[in-house]
Design a protein that fits this description.
heterodimer, A: mainly alpha, Rna Polymerase Sigma Factor, Chain: A, 0% strand, B: alpha+beta, four-stranded antiparallel beta sheet, 10 helices
């Protein structure tokens, strides 16, 4: 299952967003480039239309890096504010779609925020209970999980993944959960493919160390 | 605490599942994206960011930046020239030709022309040699420059005096050539003998004076402290 970049191209998603009818002056048929032109001409409604069209995809990108809703909301606001001020660059220099351009802005905003927080991963100082260890080991099997087990796993993941830097977790999520290709990740983050591979390898090793410690 | 030896593949599988379980689902993301104040927050950020960006590259700032850069460049060039000048041996050996005062009139030198005549041991002061245009054969080095700058930084009160020519009937060419300034202490009686009309009640009392001495060693002019 891939949520990126198909999330940006999901017609139903965009249609649902357009159905919010937040901008009565613009129809859903306006292309991104037309909306950008309107925004550059000074139209607030056009920008609101862009916002409503892309707020969910942007939230998806932000959710890879952050879990708390208020953090994701802040990233969404930062990303759209930056997009507004840099919109002239989009028209003149970027051939990519507005969606991928916004996703890169969002990813960079996430990385900047992580960097500015300078939060170090927490030390491995908490122990798991016997039930938690069993739950963790059960993940290696392919057994079907019930809702209660899923909840336990989620709690466990919150506990364990605190030890993993957010950017490492985001890369692993993009690679193994969202099943994005290395090229897509490189395009999203503006990195080279080699850098993506190296970062993914390091992130995987970090995660292995954490799991080895607890099992 | 390693109670289970898991293979890297198994660890990767567990890790992937853990990460997958921590991912927010669609409904949670929708709820965040549909937050009612999200767009107003974006507008607020734009309103706070745009003036700041505009001001950051406004005309006034650009002007100040330009002037600042100009001053920095001028400072660097000036410093470079100063250092170049101080280290140039041709400049260090440059000799200054100073015309001697004529005998029929007192010579008044401005303070800048006189320079700072300090009580430096020896007959000829380095600062005087360096700075005073009356002195011929003056040579100065970078060390003397530094001494001079240090002394100039601590200004002293100098008597505002003039050189008075002494009676001299030597070679006229000597009158036009340079000399040296000697700081001396003379008794009042000696000064009187030289033609100064001063009271000689305390004839033995010493008075500080500067003698302008020609290359032939004969005093040409004098000024009293």
């Amino acid at each position: 299952m891939s949520t990126f970049p198909t999330a940006f191209e999901d017609e139903t998603l965009i249609a649902r967003v357009d159905g919010d009818a937040a901008a009565p002056h613009f129809s859903a048929q306006l292309t991104d480039r037309q909306l950008v032109t309107e925004v550059l001409a000074g139209s607030d409604d056009a920008f609101e239309q862009i916002f409503n069209r892309y707020k969910r995809p942007v939230a998806h990108v932000a959710a890879r890096y952050f879990r708390r809703p208020e953090q994701i909301e802040e990233i969404i606001q930062i990303s759209f504010a930056k997009a507004f001020t840099e919109l002239t660059n989009f028209r003149g220099q970027h051939e990519a779609s507005l969606g991928s351009w916004l996703s890169r802005i969002t990813a960079n905003a996430c990385l900047d925020t992580i960097r500015s927080q300078k939060r170090k991963p927490e030390s491995l100082d908490c122990d798991l209970s016997a039930n938690e260890t069993e739950t963790l080991l059960d993940l290696a099997s392919c057994r079907e999980q019930n809702a209660e087990h899923k909840l336990a796993v989620r709690d466990l993941s919150e506990k364990l993944l605190r030890n993993l830097p957010e950017d490492d977790r985001a890369i692993l999520q993009m690679l193994y959960v969202d099943e994005m290709s290395v090229a897509d990740i490189a395009s999203l983050l503006g990195w080279s493919r080699s850098k993506v591979k190296i970062r993914a390898w390091r992130a995987r090793n970090s995660l292995r160390k954490i799991l080895k410690y607890y099992t | 605490m390693n109670r289970h030896e898991l293979q890297p593949g198994e660890l990767d599988k567990i890790g992937t599942r853990l990460i997958a379980s921590s991912v927010l689902n669609e409904s949670e993301i929708d709820r965040i994206a549909d937050s009612p104040f999200l767009y107003s927050g974006v507008k607020a950020r734009i309103n706070s960011d745009v003036p700041a960006r505009t001001n950051a590259f406004g005309f006034g700032r650009r002007l100040a930046l330009g002037f600042g850069s100009l001053f920095v460049v001028i400072g660097i060039v000036g410093t470079g020239l100063f250092m170049l000048r101080g280290g140039d041996p041709t400049i260090a050996d440059r000799r200054v030709h100073v015309p001697m005062p004529k005998a029929d009139q007192p010579v008044g030198y401005s303070r800048s022309e006189r320079g700072d005549i300090e009580s430096v041991p020896g007959p000829v002061m380095a600062s005087e040699r360096h700075n005073s245009p009356q002195i011929q054969n003056a040579s100065f080095s970078r060390a003397e420059d530094r001494n001079y700058a240090r002394k100039k930084a601590t200004p002293r009160v100098q008597p505002d005096l003039e050189f008075y020519p002494l009676v001299y009937t030597g070679d006229p060419k000597e009158n036009a050539s340079g000399g040296r300034v000697l700081q001396v202490e003379m008794s009042r009686s000696s000064l009187f003998a030289m033609g100064f009309n001063i009271p000689i009640e305390n004839g033995a009392e010493l008075v500080k004076a500067d003698l302008l001495v020609g290359q032939d060693g004969v005093a040409r002019a004098i000024r009293l402290h």
